[in-house]
Design brief:
The complex is a heterodimer of chains A (112) and B (110).
Chain A lengths: L4 E3 L2 E4 L5 E6 L6 E7 L5 E8 L14 E5 L5 E5 L8 E8 L6 E2 L3 E5 L1
Parallel strand pairs in A: 2-10
Antiparallel strand pairs in A: 1-3, 3-7, 4-5, 4-8, 6-7, 8-9, 8-10
Chain B lengths: L2 E5 L2 E5 L4 E8 L3 E9 L6 E6 L5 E4 L2 E5 L3 E6 L8 E9 L2 E6 L3 E6 L1
Classes of the chains: A mainly beta (112), B mainly beta (110).
Chain lengths: 112, 110
Amino acid sequence: GAGVSQSPSNKVTEKGKDVELRCDPISGHTALYWYRQSLGQGLEFLIYFQGNSAPDKSGLPSDRFSAERTGGSVSTLTIQRTQQEDSAVYLCASSLPSLDAFFGQGTRLTVV
Amino acid sequence: EDQVTQSPEALRLQEGESSSLNCSYTVSGLRGLFWYRQDPGKGPEFLFTLYSAGEEKEKERLKATLTKKESFLHITAPKPEDSATYLCAVQGGSNYKLTFGKGTLLTVNP
């Protein structure tokens, strides 16, 4: 596609439920990032995928968070047993290695 | 650990009043310094990448410069549509993640 696509754009879930957030990167981009942006905070790195290499998971805040990237393209970020502090905008970006990263519009997650 | 500090946190300008935003950074082996614009409710929009000290890039009313310790985003004769949050990020060493500052909220009044 023309840009990075994320779905859903908004998600409201009950505390304790699991959620899946999807990212479709720009075609041909081998690098994919997930970030989290909380109200009034900067972008917090979560995870980075590059081709077939092992992902850099160093930013995942707890073992409730996981992500996968199937076929080197689409990525899914899963949050298990959601908590209120997980409420944030989750942003995905893709790039060619070491080049400009382009972001999607984000998924706004609200845990009630 | 890479660090990015942006200042000021917020800046109000009158239309046509030029100014600069600052991004100070510490990084081990800079791969690139990135500037993004973010409008409310939207994802960050890519503006520039700078790779080495002395480099400059321009786009319309925006000009980004880079030294070994900081980057400036100069805004010349801003218009109300330039109002947004401007984010700075660095990528360094063998680590491909982007480390972001908290941004500068720019408001340009007509």
